[in-house]
Amino acid sequence: MPEAMPESREEKEAALKRKILxxxxxxxxxxxxxxxxxxxxxxxxxxxxxxxxxxxxxxxSLPQLEVLAYLFNTPVIYFWSEEPIEEVNRDFPTFxxxxxxxxxxxxxxxxxxxxxxxxxxxxxxxxxxxxxxISSYEFGKTEIPLPELEQLVNYLNVSLSYFMDQGLAPQExxxxxxxxxxxxxFSQLPENxxxxxxxxxxxxxxNIAMRLSGLSAETLRxxxxxxxxxxx
Length: 232
Known about the structure:
The protein is an all-alpha fold. The chain folds into three domains: about 10-90, 434 Repressor (Amino-terminal Domain), CATH 1.10.260.40; about 95-190, lambda repressor-like DNA-binding domains (434 Repressor (Amino-terminal Domain)); about 200-230, no CATH class. It is built from 13 helices and no strands.
C-alpha cells in the first residue's frame, strides 16, 4: 500500500482553521442550549455532520455559518474574532434562506471572477478541483467550503465581506448588511422576479434600477424627457 503524501503547509493551516472554528461552533451551541440534532435539523444535515464540523473534520460553508450565528443568537463575526459572544436579537432563519444565500454567493463569485479577468479553469487549478465544481459553485448548486472561499477571496482580490454584506437582492440597507430576515422576504418574491435578479447577465439592469431609485422625482422626470427627445 503506497504511503500517504505528507500534508502541505496550506492543508495544515486549513485543518487548524477548521478545528478552531469547530471549537467556536461547539461553544456557541452549548451556550445556546441546543443539541446536535436540533442544529442538524436547522441546517438540513445529520447530527453526525454537525459533530464533524465541531471537531474540525468537515468544512463549513458561509451560509451554514450565517445560519448557525442566527440560531445561536450570536454575531457571525464571532467565528473570526477573539471577542466573547454578544447576544443579538434575530429571528430564526429558514432553510430556504440558506439555499438562497448560497445562490447569491455563487452569483457574486462569478462577478468577482469576471472582473478579475479569471476563467473557471483558473479557479479550478487554484483549488485543485474539477472545472465543473467551479461552475456548480457559481450556480449555487454546491456549497463552497469556507477554506476554499477564503482562497478565492485572496486570489480574486476581494474581501470576505464582499460575500457577506453584498448581494443582488436584497442589497445593503442604510449602510448595514442585509439580514436573513430580509433575504427570507426576498424569497417570497415571484419566481420569475427572483430568477431575473439572480441572473449575472442582469446585474447591469439591477444596478441601474438601484441608482434610479435614489434619484429625486424631478431628476427622473428630466431624465425621462431627455430619453424621449433622443428616441423621437
